[in-house]
Amino acid sequence: MITVLCYKKCTTCQKAFKWLDANGVEYKERAIKEENPTYEELKTWYEKSGLPLKKFFNTSGMLYKELGLKDKLLEMSEEEQLKLLATDGMLVKRPLVVGEKTVLTGFSEKTWTEQLLEKNSLG
């Protein structure tokens, strides 16, 4: 089973849940705003994902823009970026899918089909 960190009002998250339900994927939901990922969780997921750390940031979010992170992230270490992500769930790209073998940020039907259905990387 996968865990999906999400924000209920997010339309992308709503689309993702429809896709998961339509494809019979079992998941556990976790509210990203109420239960913000910890530094340790983010570090583990980032390392497991193979994705650039920037992919974990909600670059279209208001908080990201208010904090001027587009330029600031370039000067920050990975550790500083992970600590910043751990301060507020609204900074984290969502939905964030965490499985035993895979970590995905955002929703892409093509990527999710490849990673969650075809490769059978659930767990």
From TrEMBL:
UniProt xrefs under InterPro entries: Arsenate_reductase-like, Thioredoxin-like_sf, Tscrpt_reg_Spx/MgsR
Family, similarity comment: Belongs to the ArsC family.
Matches recorded under NCBIfam families: arsC_related
Protein name: Arsenate reductase family protein
